[in-house]
Write a structure and sequence with these properties.
By secondary structure, the chain is α+β, with helices and mostly antiparallel strands. It is built from 27 helices and 17 strands. The chain has a 4-stranded mixed sheet with strand order 12-11-13-14, covered by helices on one side. A 3-stranded antiparallel sheet has the order 1-7-8. A hairpin with a 6-residue loop joins β13 and β14. α12 packs across α17 and α14 runs parallel beside α17. The protein binds a DNA duplex through α6, β14, α12, α16 and α24.
Length: about 900
Amino acid sequence: MASDSSDDDVPLARTNGHASAPRISKADDRAMDKSMSKARPGPTGVSIRNGPVRSDDAMDMDSPAKGAPKRKPRSSLGQSVYYKDDSDSDEGAPMAKRQKARHQKVESDSDNEPIAKKKQNGKLPPSIKDTNLGDLSDDDDEPLGTKLAQKKASIEKAAAKEARAARASDAKAKKATSKKAIKEESDDEPLAKPKKRQSNGSAALAKKANGVKKASTKKEPESDSDAPIATKAKRAAPAAKGKAATAKKPAKFVKEESKENGEGEEDEEEFRWWDAPKKEDDSIKWTTLEHNGVIFPPPYERLPKSVKLYYDGKPVELEEEVEEVATFFGSMLHSTQNVENPTFQKNFFNDFKDVLKKTGGAKDRAGNKIEIKDFDKDFPKLDFTKIYEHYKTIGDAKKARPAAEKKAEKAARDLVEAPFLFCKWDGRKEKIGNPRVEPPGLFRGRGEHPKTGTVKKRVLPEQVTINIGKDAPVPAPPKGHKWKAVQHDNKATWLAMWQENVNGNYKYIMLAANSAVKGQADFKKFEKARELKKHIDRIRADYTKELRSEIMADRQRATAMYLIDEFALRAGNEKDTDNEAETVGCCSLKFEHVTLEDPDKVIFDFLGKDSIRFYNEFKVDRQVFKNLKMFKKAPKEEGDDIFDRLTTTQLNKHLSSYMTGLTAKVFRTYNASWTMSSLLQELKIDQNIPVAEKIKLYNDCNRKVAILCNHKRTVGAGHEAQMEKLGDRIKGMKYQKWRTKMMILDVDSKQKKRKGAEYFELDSDLDEEWILQHQQFLVEELRTKITKKFEKDNEKREADGEKPFPEKELAERLKAAKELEAKYKKENKTKKVEAEGKGPTVEKLEGQAEKLDERIRNLELQSADREGNKEVALGTSKINYIDPRLTVVFAAKAKVPIEKFFSKTLRDKFKWAIESVGDDESWEF
DNA sequence: GTTCGTACTTAGCATTGGCTGG
DNA sequence: CCAGCCAATGCTAAGTACGAAC
């Protein structure tokens, strides 16, 4: 095989390992072909030098070498980060983020060990087989991916057709089909326009204002004296309730609580932006903006004197600040997942010691210094249990309080918080998403995050930047404090912002999902995805062609596009490998994440966003297979990028040449919505089936989309048990149904002929043994119920000063259980069931049986749904990927109320979709 | 081009609170 | 009517993306 030099002189997109050659000669290609054709039964010889990556064993190996960075470029000079733990907790230390994945060459790769493999959270994907997807497609034994892929193939074909059609009709400019404005125009409308973020608005201004350097953990020195406005004339209002600064507002939309229809209604007229003409310039987000700032968490309350942290068996005196840190740990002892994680402990302990030192150390009761040296979990030198118990106690007590008290407290709190929950945006009252500043605590990163356990510090007003209208009164910071800055950037949608100390990330206070800005953005997102429909065939044709490009970069790009399009992979931005969990997306896939099996099978196994495992086996296009093999060609090895000549920026730049605003992310939206659309269309809704079944069908579609997007959830600890319980309930009901039917015979034996013997047969999943057991269970259940009731009655009598029932009474009552037992015995023997109830008639019993039947069907549906959802989360795709208008249309077509699909909040969030589509069933994605 | 800084969307798990069925 | 359960909501971490600065 053409030996391509690993270190090419051509600049590479990324060079953190071995590079691929910039060009691919015909010979190279042929060589690849050849190697492929000698396909052997097993995995290809090519490239999988170290054995298939495949998870588990490989994964265990690295165990807890915690603390130590996974992989350091051991090469290069010190400049590299050096992850000295002690340094990082330190104020002055450089903030992590800085060294984004190293871009220097790691030469000498002699360097034995590959990147330590992730330990992962690893949820295994639901193989389509066990996910009860119903008939996803024809053949049943294909792996998940393949099936979906097949489905997709047909969907894609349809897509291409659509695209052509769309372009054609587009050409004709207006097809104006009576529809409401919004949907037709959308495509070439301003709203859907380039989404360029216009610099930072009043960039200069903004810049200056929150000159928070990501990197610098700096003390925040130069808090702006320069913040021009802060001094605002009218301090006036911050306290006032929502309507606050009524003063000079447009008042047009305001319309105070006046004539609202009926009670309970809000006091504002809603803004139906989807009916309004579109904004010319959507980079300006608002013209006036008023709000009251943010809610800070309550101050720390010291522990009672009797509650201490213990070290080496002795209680320890701590200054307030360390004590608080100790409580962070102490109050989460129940979360063994965190508390027992060595990285968590290490990070916590380091930070703890720092604060301890800073506050003058620990003392014993007599005031003598105690040096806290070891964390020592097995032999707990540092013992938090007293703290834990303390919080547990007060927590329980709080919970146990009378409902009225709790309610009163909540009401009081709500009153205090009310002013912060809404803002006035262009004169309209809008809900704020989460107006709270995040409370201090211990950082819990997902997956194997190197910083988990680090102390997340209390955020002071001095770190918070406020974004607000020029003419609006600036909210007063808490007494004795000031804001870090106040700015008036109307190209930003946030109201307040601060930088968090652990990773240097920005945190924003923004509007809620049901607000106009968010809604418009959401709308725009889906319109963008719909726009892609018009280009998808061309894009697919192009990348298919480019899969054979001689230019390595192009070929890689085409291959990546294939993966993103086909398997809904995320873009895969570069990450900072030392300070973040090691997760990847398409462009950052590494050698070990992709395993190839001749002739055309690709196995993906990697941790994606949130350290959720992506495991799938797909059959791919031959050329894609070949390319991947090439991208993995020696000398590449574990740890090396597959797409070493591709970055997300390059990819997106290319995509945007097809369509303004097209990025990798749009494909996920597009594919999810398009898939949902196709699946729903395939459902031939029989209007006669019960609503529950229609919902189930919808959920099945939803689930397929969720699987496509790899949206998972951990199966709850109790899942197995719950399923079993549900199963038993179903069986119990079936048994009862059978008994009811038998009673019919008891009333009228001629019914057997009339209805046929089959009607009276026992359900196939009930057998004698189970029945016996179930009968026993029922008897037992009755017994405990009676006993419980008895006890309760007695308690009551006692409370009322009466004397309790004698034991005899209990025995008397328990006779009922005995009788039940006897009854079952008799039934078992005679194979007959005596009709129960007063005046049993055939009709009545039939009715009962029918009722039971319906309940059984319902429960079975529920059970299947639940099992299918065991490890698939439907919510994420519903909230973020599936065009809500699809659901609205489906609901209308199937005549199912929209509430069955969208919760209250979702209905608020998707109000635009619900209202703009209305009951127009002809809307299409 | 790469890196940095920023802002906004997407994500799963924890907590809450309303409902159901015993 | 109440407990127990689950869906809905809350919380905040972790992605994507893109202009500006280097």
